[in-house]
Amino acid sequence: MCDDDIHPGLVHDPRLSRRAFGLMTVAATGIATVARADDKVEEKDVTVKTADGVADAALFYPKGKGKWPAVLLWPDIMSLRPVFRDMGRRLAEAGYVVLVPNLYYRVRKAPVIDGRFDFSKPDDRAKLMTLRPSVTPAGTARDAEAYVAFLDAQPQTDKTKKIGTQGYCMGGPLAFYTAGAAPGRIGAVATFHGGGLVSKDADSPHLLIPKTHAEYLIEIAGNDDQREPDVKDQLKAAFASAKRPAQVEVFGGSNHGWTVKGSQVYDEPAAERAWSNLLALYKRALG
């Protein structure tokens, strides 16, 4: 889904530790005690029953009375960890109910990586390579159905509004698979330096576009575009053919992973511009 040699080297978040952020095991579809909360956002560790087991995840929503549109946030190859909790919290502050799942729940609870991680080191990469096979297009579609149902079951979710989904790195294709699995509920899809959005395989994510009813935001890293310059054009053609509204943009000078804090290629000004584009998409498509 994302080539190993395109990833930045060091990824570091001093808050990342299994002891501090390990998700708790609770009854399926139940909610664990609050992991972190402030005066604006409620954050809870949850489990979601899927067709393949029980997934650990984090749920965020604004405090106070009300109902809000929902968002399913797919993290990058390193899965659920503090930086994606921060994103979930930030989205909730903007007025959304947000679910961030652990990609690898079938084999390991989050966080799957402790402390520093360096993609330039074979031993570090090997830790993820044993987990990646557990994430498949068919399995993701089943998971997406369960996650959408979970979000719709939350009392904070406004079910009169469409659901948004966004993905980072290998989470990009997962956002596409979500739109294909729940076309009647997904109204917006966003990907950031997504890998593998277009391939020659029969289950290539871009082939699902005609089945969906969403508006798309595709933010491409500059070095990803250099490696695969035809992808943006293939995506634009697919969106045009399906008559799906879409913004496909290459962030010149950016590197794969530029929107995720803790990465050595994190580019805050560009990441903030991408975040503004995301909020504008959700405002248009979700209300």
Supply the key terms.
two-stranded antiparallel sheet; 8 helices; Rossmann fold; alpha/beta; 9-stranded mixed sheet; 11 strands; 287 residues
3D structure, described in words:
- The chain has 287 residues and is of the alpha/beta class.
- The chain has one domain: 3-Layer(aba) Sandwich (Rossmann fold).
- 31% of the residues lie in helices and 23% in strands.
- The strands form 2 sheets. A 9-stranded mixed β-sheet has the order 2-3-4-6-5-8-9-10-11, with helices on both faces.
- Helix 4 (137-153) packs across helix 5.
- The longest helix has 18 residues, at 268-285.
Write the SSE topology.
Elements lengths: L9 E2 L6 H4 L9 E7 L3 E10 L2 E10 L7 E5 L7 H12 L3 E5 L15 E2 L3 H8 L7 H17 L9 E6 L2 H11 L4 E7 L22 E7 H6 L3 H12 L3 E6 L16 H18 L2
Parallel strand pairs: 5-6, 5-8, 8-9, 9-10, 10-11
Antiparallel strand pairs: 1-7, 2-3, 3-4, 4-6
GO molecular function, one term: hydrolase activity
Pfam family, one: DLH
Organism: Caulobacter vibrioides OR37
